[in-house]
Structure formats: C-alpha cells, structure tokens
Amino acid sequence: MAEIVNLNRARKAKARTEAQAIAAANRAAFGRTKAEKRATKAEAERRAKELDGAKREP
After folding, report:
1. Buried b (16+ CB within 10 A) or exposed e, 24-56
2. What is the pTM of this model?
3. What is the pLDDT of residues 18-57, one digit of tens each?
4. Which of the residues 18, 31, 32, 52 could staple to 36 if both were Cys, CB 3.0 to 4.6 A apart?
5. Which contiguous run of DSSP H or E holds residue 45?
6. Which of 28, 53, 52 is closest to 40 using CA atoms?
C-alpha cells in the first residue's frame, strides 16, 4: 500500500524549501560589503577591457 501523505503539509514544505533557496540566493547577491561590490565591478570592467583590446579590426 502507498504511504498516506497530508497534502497541506507537503505543499507547505515545498513552499518552505523554495523560500529558503530564494533567501540563500538573495544573501549571496545582496549580503556583500561595499568594498566587495566595488571589487567585483572592477574585475568585470577589467575583463571587458581586456576582451575589447584583444579584438581584431575587420
């Protein structure tokens, strides 16, 4: 026989795990210091400049 499942509890458990995943992503995105944000931005700009410098003219 199959196991009896309370659908209300299952729905709430699923919503809880999804909310925890979203919270973890937000902590990673917004839980950084101003210096870390500046460092990330500077690194992205450096990579873009390096890539643009490596392009050949047609």
Report:
1. eeeeeeeeeeeeeeeeeeeeeeeeeeeeeeeee
2. 0.52
3. 999 999 999 988 999 999 999 999 999 999 999 988 878 8
4. 32
5. helix 34-53
6. 28
